[in-house]
What does this fold into?
Amino acid sequence: MPPRVLPSALFALLPAALLAQPGAPPPPLRLADALARAERLAVANRGARSAADAQRAAALTALRGVLPTARVDAGYLRTTDPIGVFGTTLRQRQVTPANFDPARLNFPGATPNYTGALSIEQPIVNVDAWAGRRSAQHATRASDANADWTRVGIHVDVIAAWYGATLANEKARTLESALRAARAHVQQAEAMARNGIVTPSDAMLAAVKAGEVEAALIEARGDATTARLALATVIGTPGDTNFALPDALPPRARIDALLDAPAIVARTETRADLRAAQAMRNAADADVQRTRATYLPRLNGFARYDWNSALRPFGGASNWTVGVMASWVPVAGLADWGETRAAAARRAGAQAMHDGAIARAQLEIARATTAVAVARARSDIAERAVAQATDAHRIIGRKYAGGLAAVSELLTAAATETQVRLGAAAARHALIIAAAEHARAIGNDPARLAPLDAVADVALRADTLSH
It folds into this structure.
């Protein structure tokens, strides 16, 4: 490398080197990024796509009775059979008057023959094959719809896991604030005990409560680590937890803005699982038609080109044959009748599954709608409780500082505020999950909740255990 190129190469490598430093912050994982990863890597999505691909490939076999078939044959034989020898000699265009000698006809010598053939068969009228093709196409659509339904379900799982990990971060952050407040209460109680305003038992009781908060914080940090692992597993990268997540869930105002925005009207036919059920019913209908069509005549065309030679395959003179073959099997025992009855039973089962899917979808829509309303009401109550508990804690703190309240009241108020804040965060999380389930129930993609992503609005936390 020339000397003048070295500095530019080093500068080009510098950003990568900086990113590789152990102390470099991990990249943020936005909700949209997590959904995109799950599209490609989630185990359920990969399995559903593989099943759809397999069904699509299997549907190609139904073309066997529709598209032409070409075959190439080559062979060799050596025979002393009188008829075989004469026929082989005739096919090789080698017949002479001497071949009609009775002794030679009755006791011919061994005659070799190399054969070659090119044949094409074209189905012309095979009603059962066309019905089988339609059935396979409907089954492929059902498999694709099932893959879509799995993908939508994974979106719900990713949203739940992403916001679950974020909720775990918020819980840890809330307990960190509570621990700082508890330690401040301990210092305050110790100072007031030294001044004779309160008894030493106040300081000891405050220290006990601070220890309880610290233990809860340790547990919360462990839960946050587990939640990150769960998120990585859901999106299909269980070995990669090197990402940063928000410290807190989005505020209610952001959630309300998205919930109140115009959404897709609830229509059961837009759900992928119902499309799959409809396609399976259509496939069963076509399969019944296929079994009934086996009683109809079939018409197939064929063309063949043959070579026969005593020296090599595909040598010598050639001949061709073209024809049309009609066939009809009006009675084939009980086998076809049994297959028709089995297909009719499968159609009845597919119809039942379709009816059940519609009823289940309607129930899920009603249930999801109610769940959103309940979650919203609970979140409203929790938000009001946060404001009330904060004010109560502040008032009792002032009363304790003035010697007008017992330390037990102060510690109870602090604990109540902490629990209420944790409950409000859990209520917001439940509202987000209810909204995702509702979007799925009405045939919408839960990925529409991606704008709730609060990564850009709050500090990121990569590992709560480090705090």
Residues 1-21 have pLDDT under 50 and may be disordered. Residues 149 and 273 are 6 Å apart (CA to CA).
